[in-house]
Amino acid sequence: MHANGFLVDIPPIHSLLSFAKFGAFDHRRNCAVPLFPRRSGRKRRKLLNRMCIAPTVWGSKQGEDMALVAERMKLVSDSITLAVSAKANALKKAGVDVVGFGAGEPDFDTPTFIKDAAKAALDKGQTKYTPTPCIPELKAAIAEKFSRENYLPYKPENITTGAGGKHCLYMAFMAVLNPGDEVLIPTPYWVSYPEQAKLAGGVNKFIAGQEKNGFKITPQQLEAAITPKTKIFLINSPSNPAGHMYSPEELKGLADVIAKHPNIVVFSDEIYEKLVYGNNKFVSFATLHPSLIESIVACPDPRKQLSHPV
Ligand SMILES: Cc1ncc(COP(=O)(O)O)c(C=O)c1O
User: pLDDT per residue over 90-104, tens digit each?
Assistant: First the structure.
């Protein structure tokens, strides 16, 4: 990105978004700086000249500085997760005994065998550019995991990776949506889905999970929400934030509806597949109907299970 005379690498989209919303990159100090403090007049313009990424939030005068950023940035809201986490941290700092329900992260350290493998890879010189979708060995290992644990016949060439679930989902929305395409999102939902869909030109349609159904949606509700413009059905089970899980039978009911609509792509966010308790049984959505294998983006992620940075 070239702005104000600086040439910089574009950071991953989530960092870009949080810079644009909450801060910017200071080239003299070579770091991101928070822009919460309100600055006005000359001081603000001086600061702006040092930034490569224009912020949207300067005090409350959003409109004034929005000229510097892309129109699409107006579409997205601030991250509620970050706001809640920041509030919890501030309360903790102030000595309040508080449990943060913002960012979802295991409360244990990354296991030693993972840290050791990462160190060994660095020592072996595995520090160079890799193919964009990831190294072939990782793709083969992921394909093997899908086959062994999820009964999914995906081949290494069907697999790509990214810097976490958020990044992968964003890439998937960008790859699938055309402007005006509808995205069906059951409520309650993880807050990033609608923002990412909007950035990719999608129109969100929410299907209300009702309390009497454990906040899950029914096949009838799904069928009723589908229109000729529906492009993506998003399902997240086990769910954040509801904490519930659809049974295999409940998922099959939804899969049978989707199978009747070959133009719909399913994004099955399976990031919590290992966080299953009691007698619940996890199944991958793509296994529920033969026609779904080709139209599913399954999204598992070791970070949630192994406290493992991606
Ligand atoms: C349901 C759901 N999907 C995806 C993600 C993204 O995970 P990541 O941290 O790997 O980007 C999260 C993160 O909390 C999540 O709760």
Answer: 999 999 999 888 877
The Å distance, Cα 179 to ligand 1 centre, comes to 25
* H-state helical runs in 181-288: 192-199, 219-225, 248-259
- Determine the distance from the C-alpha atom of residue 76 to the mean position of all C-alpha atoms in its chain, rounded to a whole number: 14
Number of structural domains (the chain) is 2
Overall average pLDDT of the 47-72 stretch:
53
pTM here is 0.77
CA-based nearest residue to 200, from 180, 186, 230: 180
Ligand 1 center to 239 CA (angstroms): 10
What is the distance in A from the centroid of ligand 1 to the CA of 161? 14
**Residue 305: in which H helix or E strand, if any?**
helix 302-306
**Which DSSP letter does residue 51 get?**
B
Ligand 1 site-directed mutation target among 81, 270, 301, most atoms within 8 Å of CB: 301
Domain that holds residue 262: 113-306
288 and 163 assigned to the same domain: yes
| Residues 298, 168 within the same domain | yes
Q: Is the CB of 267 under 6 A from ligand 1?
A: no
More confident residue, 303 or 292: 292
- CA distances (Å), origin 12, targets 5, 93, 194, 251, 296: 21, 29, 19, 33, 24
Residue nearest atom 4 in ligand 1 by C-alpha distance: 165
Can you give the CATH number for the domain in which 137 is found?
3.40.640.10
Alpha-carbon gap, residue 142 to 113, rounded angstroms: 18
